[in-house]
Amino acid sequence: RREPLALINLKKKNEETGEEELAKRLDHCKAKATRHIFLIRHSQYNLDGRADKDRTLTPLGREQAELTGQRLASLGLKFDQIIHSSMTRATETTEIISKHLPGVKKISTDLLREGAPIEPDPPVSHWKPEAVQYYEDGARIEAAFRNFIHRADAKQEEDSYEIFVCHANVIRYIVCRALQFPPEGWLRMSLNNGSITHLVIRPNGRVALRTLGDTGFMPPDKITRT
């Protein structure tokens, strides 16, 4: 789902028509539409919860999700789907946001769960997960990037608008990978709760970052990063 030439079996190339046949098949594989990816960080949640099910949204977190939902609805876009992390805080954020976007289907996935994507460079002293976490979480989060962040399918005729509700580490890693920046720099970015990050993927594969961690639609006293 990336470079059209990679989707063609060159061994089947017609020797008589040659380049003309190749051009036809290439055109059939080229994307025509633009994908708009909205990456939403979950709202503030209860940090004291031991298990994931106990890490529910705080009252402020629920307010933040309402504000994010209102903001997305105000854009006047026809959203195709909401794909969200299966963790409690992301699921609850999705439920509140979806009230403002009636009719948009919701899909839960384990791929977008929070984790340690890759060892940050430069390293930080306050966050040092076990090395095995980078291998387990990193492979999963990279799989999420490859599965969800790509140019539109060649059969897609119209531009699409998709929402992904997940976590700060996942979003920061995806942004670095999508923009072809060194992924080790993911921890240099900071994202507020309920923030909106907007990536645009053009038919030719070029990616642009429209907004990163936008919470300008929230009153200052509602903004958190916990």
Automatic annotation (TrEMBL):
<dbReference type="Pfam" id="PF00300">
    <property type="entry name" value="His_Phos_1"/>
</dbReference>
<keyword id="KW-0472">Membrane</keyword>
<dbReference type="GO" id="GO:0090141">
    <property type="term" value="P:positive regulation of mitochondrial fission"/>
</dbReference>
<dbReference type="InterPro" id="IPR013078">
    <property type="entry name" value="His_Pase_superF_clade-1"/>
</dbReference>
<dbReference type="InterPro" id="IPR029033">
    <property type="entry name" value="His_PPase_superfam"/>
</dbReference>
<protein>
    <recommendedName>
        <fullName>Serine/threonine-protein phosphatase PGAM5, mitochondrial</fullName>
        <ecNumber>3.1.3.16</ecNumber>
    </recommendedName>
</protein>
<dbReference type="GO" id="GO:0012501">
    <property type="term" value="P:programmed cell death"/>
</dbReference>
<comment type="similarity">
    <text>Belongs to the phosphoglycerate mutase family. BPG-dependent PGAM subfamily.</text>
</comment>
<keyword id="KW-0496">Mitochondrion</keyword>
<dbReference type="GO" id="GO:0004722">
    <property type="term" value="F:protein serine/threonine phosphatase activity"/>
</dbReference>
<keyword id="KW-1000">Mitochondrion outer membrane</keyword>
<dbReference type="GO" id="GO:0005741">
    <property type="term" value="C:mitochondrial outer membrane"/>
</dbReference>
<dbReference type="InterPro" id="IPR051021">
    <property type="entry name" value="Mito_Ser/Thr_phosphatase"/>
</dbReference>
<keyword id="KW-0378">Hydrolase</keyword>
<keyword id="KW-1210">Necrosis</keyword>
